[in-house]
Amino acid sequence: MALNRDFVGRTYPPSAPYEVSRVKIKEFAAAIGDNNPLYRDREAAQAAGYPDVIAPPTFPIVFSLQSGGEALVDPDLGLNLAMVVHGEQRFEYVRPVHAGDELVMTSTITDIRTAGRNELLTVRSEVRTVQGEPVCVTYNTIVERGGAG
Amino acid sequence: MTATVRYDEVEVGQELPAAEYNVRRVNLVMYAGASGDFNQIHWNERFAKMVGLPDVIAHGMFTMAQAGRFVTDWAGDPGAVVDFGVRFSSMVVVPDDDRGATISVSGVVEEKLEDKRVVVGLTARAGDAKVLSKARAVVQLS
């Protein structure tokens, strides 16, 4: 079933703050097999000029759909989650995420389009600290396989 | 935050040494837990096949993370990456054995920008399949 184009342009309320912890960064780094000390060792991170351990570049995926994610399960959108795969992902960084950050996401559905037999939906999420400092912007495009067929 | 690579020492067309990253089922289980993405196509072979996939496939974000690691290892500082985007063009199928799959990542300096930034074009393959396309990172060099 084609996705409901009425959802394009919808902006969702800011998420509850996500508190970035050293333990979570370490767990994420271990899961991707990356032993970089800046992800684990606070002294190494501080020696490199950071306030605390930093997170790998793809870490914001952990929380970037916290606002707007409810759109994906809204029956009015018409998305079959069982057929969803990730299509594209992009991050624009102002600075790395680090332990101690409290981050708030604001997400907007920016595009829904058909590509062959698939439906593609793009969500843009602005990530800021609770103090309002911009940290990064994420662009997440998911593919509903066969959705246009 | 300082990259160990100097802008003046890289040239357009310069290739970054290729690297290989292994992915087994256990890595996908760990990634599911760490990322919160518990989509069954990444750990349940029965479900993956039921929805028309050849087998369990790696999270796209796992593959992107390997490409990210390739860039941050080169740059010397993860904070030097200022923009990073990919398209997931093919699936990384992860068999249920002790070898799993191998993701091969290579890169080339495609462009030198102002302010000591460079564009690194990335290629990631698993077997014969190109699993990332339009993959590029903008890196702030020193």
Question: How would you summarize the topology of this molecule?
Answer:
The complex is a heterodimer of chains A (149) and B (142).
Chain A: E1 18-19, H1 22-31, H2 42-47, H3 69-72, E2 84-93, E3 102-115, E4 118-129, E5 134-144
Chain B: E1 15-23, H1 25-35, H2 45-50, H3 60-75, E2 81-88, E3 101-112, E4 117-126, E5 129-140
Antiparallel strand pairs in B: 1-3, 2-5, 3-4, 4-5
Written overview of the protein:
The complex is a heterodimer of chains A (about 150) and B (about 140). In chain A, a hairpin with a 4-residue loop joins strand 4 and strand 5 (about 135-145). Chain A has a five-stranded antiparallel β-sheet with strand order 1-3-4-5-2, with no helix packed on it. Chain A has a single domain (about 5-20, about 55-145), classed as Roll (Thiol Ester Dehydrase, Chain A). Helix content of chain A is about 15%, strand content about 35%. Chain A has helices at about 20-30, 40-45, 70; strands at about 20, 85-95, 100-115, 120-130, 135-145. By secondary structure, chain A is α+β, with helices and mostly antiparallel strands. Chain B is of the alpha+beta class. A five-stranded antiparallel β-sheet of chain B has the order 1-3-4-5-2. The radius of gyration of chain B is 16 Å and the shape is elongated. The interface between A and B is large, with 36 and 41 residues. Strand 2 (about 85-95) of chain A pairs antiparallel with strand 2 (about 80-90) of chain B, so a sheet runs across the interface.
